[in-house]
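INFO  loader      accepted 1 record
INFO  loader      residues=235
INFO  predictor   begin
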Amino acid sequence: MKRIVSILLTALLLFAAVGCTNAAANSTGSTELTGKTEETATQTTEAPAQEPEKTEEDSNVNNNPIATITMKDIGVMKLELYPDVAPNTVKNFISLANAGFYDGLIFHRIIAGFMIQGGGYNAAGYPVETGYSIKGEFASNGFQNDLKHTRGVISMARTQVRDSASSQFFIMHDDAPHLDGEYAAFGMLLEGFDVLDRIATTQTGYNDVPLVFPVIESIRVETFGVDYGEPEKLQ
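INFO  predictor   done
INFO  writer      dumping C-alpha cells
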C-alpha cells in the first residue's frame, strides 16, 4: 500500500514539474518573438492599411489625354494633359504629337534642378519650325491658368513675345514658382520621374546644351475617343 502511495506521489510531482516547464517555455517563446507584452503585441502585429498603387486609370478619372514620350535608350514618360486648364495649348500639343512632328527631335536645353526643354531641334542640332505660333494661355497674358510650375509639370516655351509659343515645351525638374503665370503650363507627369531625372542630369556644355542629345523617339497622345480638333493658330 505504501509502495502504491509513493508511486502516485512521484507521478503527481513529475506531472506538476512538466506543466510548469511547458508554461515557462511558452511564455519565454512569446516574449522573445515580440519583445512586447501580449496587449502591445496584439496592437502592433496587425498589418497597417496600405493605399493601393495608383494606375493610369486611377489617376486619370476625367479621361484627360495621356501623352507618352518614348526616349531613345532612356525610357518612357507619361503625362496627363489638362484641356480645362489650357485648352488651345493642349490641342496644339496633341495635333503636333499625333502627326509625328516630335519624332526624332531632341531635348536641346537642360538645367538640372530646373527643367528640360525640347521639341524645337532635330538630332543634328538644327531648328525645326511649325510655321505658326499660338496665344499664350497664362495669367500675365490675360488668361486664367492656375497650374503651378512644380516638379513634373509640362509647360510651353516662348520668347519674350507672349504669343510666340509653337512646338517647344519644357518639363519641370524641380519647382520654379517664378514661372507661374508667365508660361502656359498644361499637364503633369504621371510616370517616368526616373527618366526625367536621367535626362536632367545629362552632361551639358555652353548655354546648357547637352554634350549628347537625349533623342525623342516619339510622342503620342491617347485621347480616349475625344476629338480635340486643331488649335487656333497665329501666323
